[in-house]
Amino acid sequence: MALSALADDHAATSVSTLDFKNQFVASGIVPEVVAALDPSVSFYASYKAGDDDHDELLVPGSSLSVSEATMPFEFSVENLNNATNITAQTRFLIYLLDADAPARSDPTARNLRHYLAGNYTQTGQHSTVLPTAQLLAVPNGQFRPLTPFTNPNPSPGTGVHRFIYALYTQPARFNSAGFESVGMEAETQNWNLSRWRAQLGLGPAIGATFFTIDTSSNTTGTSGGRTNSTAGSSSAGTVSPPLGFGFMSFLMALVLFRM
């Protein structure tokens, strides 16, 4: 069950890092998809929700429609001082992946990457949805996503897909070099997170959240989704808006990785 971060009038409230951690366990993402998650920050995305297109805070376990699961208009964090070795100059990277591609019961393309971009920085501004959270955004001219945002759009009848956003501190070498400089490939299916972390020299994720899409109500989906070519492009100002059952499950348990 998703946490409720909304009160009357869609007012957002904070979610503790412990609640983030517990929701990843309750959803089965830990340990089915990732071995562990111990977030030091509360990591949020903000999106347009409902028929009235109101601003809403993505909290772990939120159930979204395909039309709502577009590029978030904000990424933000709370408790950033709890993360180690963070300064005002620290940069961050964010990804989005589908843990259940192409189908929840047979995730043969598990960890289908829908987005990967670095150079997110602290803007010195606060979220318009959750005023206690600090905005993260990419300065103009520095938005070079390895994987441009592809809208999640899973095929009908493939179960409830879990989509994971994760936040990492970015090694300084990638402030000016692309991830491909260390051999990272553009292929998005069967993304090996443990190998990727080793390639980039990353520590564990400092924050993560997730949402679900129930494909029983999705009649037009495709397993790969649709590319949003304008996602993350620079805006006016200094920043741009913004991660089988039975025997099959046993096999997957043998290759568990940590975020």
From TrEMBL:
Disordered: annotated span: 217-237
Q: Which Gene3D superfamilies match?
A: PEBP-like
Q: What keywords are annotated for this sequence in UniProt?
A: Membrane, Transmembrane, Transmembrane helix
Query: Where is the chain membrane-spanning?
Result: 239-257
Q: What SUPFAM superfamilies does the database record attribute to this sequence? A: PEBP-like
The name on file for this protein is: PEBP-like protein
Q: What is the species of this protein?
A: Parathielavia appendiculata
Tell me the organism's taxonomic lineage: Eukaryota, Fungi, Dikarya, Ascomycota, Pezizomycotina
